Amino acid sequence: MAYPFPRFSSAPQTPQYVKGIESPSSWQSRGLDKPRSYAIRWLVASVAAAVVFLILLAKAFASNPHQTDRIPFSISAIDDFFNHFEGRQDCGIASTDVYIPPIATLASTKKHSLYCPNRAKLLEAMSGGGRHGFDTPYFPVGCHFRWYSTAEICMILDRFDAIVFLGDNTLRHIYSAFNMLLRENIALGGLRQWEMKESEREACRCENQLSRLECLSYSVLNSQSVRSNDAGSGHSSPYICDRTPHIFIPIDRSPAAEDLHTSFSSILQREPDSYKPIAVIHSLSLATSLAWSTATSSMDEWVTLADNSQKNVPFLWIGPNAAGHLKPPSQILSQGNNALWHYTIEMAEEARARQLDALGMYNFTLQAGSWDGSYYGQKVVLVQAMMVINWLSRLEST
Prior knowledge:
The radius of gyration is 25 Å and the shape is globular. Strands 4-3-5-6-7 form a five-stranded parallel sheet, with helices on both faces. Strands 1-2 form a two-stranded antiparallel sheet. The longest helix has 24 residues, at 38-61. The protein is of the alpha/beta class. It has 17 helices and seven strands. 40% of the residues lie in helices and 8% in strands.
C-alpha cells in the first residue's frame, strides 16, 4: 500500500495577552464605558490605513501566488505531448498514458488554481500521491504538477547556468528520460546513437535503452557530447534547445573520486560572474545498499563543494523507487519496501535539515511495472524527469 508522505506543517500560535489592552466585554464587566476619545479613534484609523496600504503594496509587487513557475498556461489543450516525438508509434507511449491533467469540477474554477501554488506544496503533492490501479497514471495529492511542452522546458532551463545530476543508476535513468524530452526522441533519445551500429540501434530502441546492459553503455552522460557529435552523424537527433549545459556525474559511494569533484567544481566555475543558479539533482540508494551514513555523507560532501564555490546552487534530493514484484527474494530483507520506505523518510528529513529540497519516489513507483524489481521503464522515468523539471520551474532565477 502507499504511505502518506509527511506533510510540511507548523504549530498554531496562541495569541498572547498584552497588558493594558482590554476588550469591550471586559470594560462592561467592570462597569466602564467604551473609550471614545479622539486619540483612540485616530489611532484605530491610522492602523487601518496602514494595513490597507501594506496590502496594496504587496499586491503591486508580488507575483501571482497561484502560478509561481511563470510559464503561461496554454489556451488550447494538448491531447498528447509525445505526438511529434520520434518513436511515438514504435514505443507505443502517449503522454496520456502517464499523465492526466487536473479537471475542474466547477465552471468557475480557474485553471491555475488546480496546480500546486508553491514549491513546498509541489514536492509534497508529487511525493505523497498514488495510482488508481496497477500501472495507471499517477495522481499527486492535494494539487497537481504540470506537463510542460518542449518549448516550455526550454524557457525553464534558460534560467540556469547548468543542471547537474549526481547519483547512481536510478538517477541515471531519470537523466536519460530528461534527454529524451529535450531531444523529442523516446526511441533513442537517451543514447549516443551516433556511436552505435545499425543493429545496435535497432536492438536498443524504446524500453531497451534502459533495460539492456549493452545499451546502457551508450547512455548520454552530458549535453556537450550530443552537441558536438550528433549533428554530424547520419542519425541526427539534436536538442530542441541547448543553451543550458547539463551533465550526469555517476557516484556510488562517499567520498566520491577526486576527478568527479574536479568535474563538479569546473561546472560551478563555468560562469563566475553569472547571477543564474546551478541546480543539482542528487540521489544515492541501491548502489550503497541503502546505507544511511553514506547518503548523509554524500549530501555533506557535495553541499560543501557547492558552498565553497560561492554560487547559488539549489539541491533536490530524490529518494529511491519502491521495490517491484520481481525483486529477487535474496534482496527483500535489505532492499525490500520496508527498508526503502524508512530510507525514504529518514533521508528526506536529513536533506531538509541541510536546507535541501526532497522528493520521494516511493509512492510514485509502488504500483508501477518494473522489469527486475529495482528499475523501471519509460512510462515511469519520463514522469520522473518531468517532476524534476517542475521543481526547476519553481526555483528562483537569481
